[in-house]
Amino acid sequence: MNNLPRICWTSAAFIALGGMLWGLHMAISGDHSNLAAHAHLNLLGWVSLALYGTYYQLAGITRLTLARLQVLFAIPGSVIMGIGIAIAHQTGAEEMAKIGSLLVIISALLFAVITVMRPLRINNAG
Ligand code: HEM
Ligand code: HEM
Fold first, then answer.
1. Which of 1, 33, 42, 112 reaches 20 to 30 Å from 67, CA-CA?
2. Which keywords does UniProt give here (predicted)?
């Protein structure tokens, strides 16, 4: 875990692929009941993770321990939450969705702290 932007972007790319294939499956089958799961997997695992990676690249953060921890929560959080929402919708069992959303919220909290600790310093002289 010594290149956080790369880890974020590569994970995001593969999760996007999975999320898009899931969307394609919904479209082809005509069964859109997993819409909420697909939406969260894509928006957390693709969009949010890519944004985290972009921030780390812009802020020059590649091995900060708190950021490593943040990514360690964000990646499984998005996948567990996406799959958990599908299970919750199909079976009513919400445990996995709850665990996933907890991981997602912890990662969001850590990220908020990191933006304060290591703010972007845009060199805008002149
Ligand atoms: C090949 C790529 C994709 C396919 C085939 C696909 C397919 C679908 C389908 C069939 C639905 C259900 C629509 C409905 O019943 O109203 C849906 C919903 C949704 N998708 Fe995708 N999707 C794809 C990629 C993405 C990506 C990349 C994102 C986010 C970055 C995304 C975000 C959403 C959201 C937020 C919804 C829920 C919209 C709502 O609340 O009505 N999708 N998608
Ligand atoms: C821990 C974090 C989150 C929780 C617990 C959560 C929970 C929920 C819930 C309960 C719904 C209603 C779903 C339904 O009616 O079936 C919803 C919808 C939605 N959420 Fe989230 N959400 C979270 C994070 C996010 C994030 C970060 C995004 C975007 C980046 C997002 C985008 C959406 C969208 C687009 C919808 C409407 C589409 C749908 O029906 O699924 N959510 N969310």
1. 42
2. Membrane, Transmembrane, Transmembrane helix
Are 108 and 81 in contact, with CB atoms under 8 Å apart?
A: no
Question: How far is Cα 37 from Cα 81, in angstroms, rounded to an integer?
Answer: 8
- Per-residue pLDDT of 80-122, as tens digits, reads 999 999 999 999 999 999 999 999 999 999 999 999 999 998 7
Domain membership of residue 126 (yes or no) is no
> To test the ligand 1 pocket, which listed residue (34, 40, 42) has its Cβ within 8 A of the most ligand atoms?
42
CA 46–ligand 1 middle distance (angstroms)? 12
What residue has token string 């703010």? Answer: 119
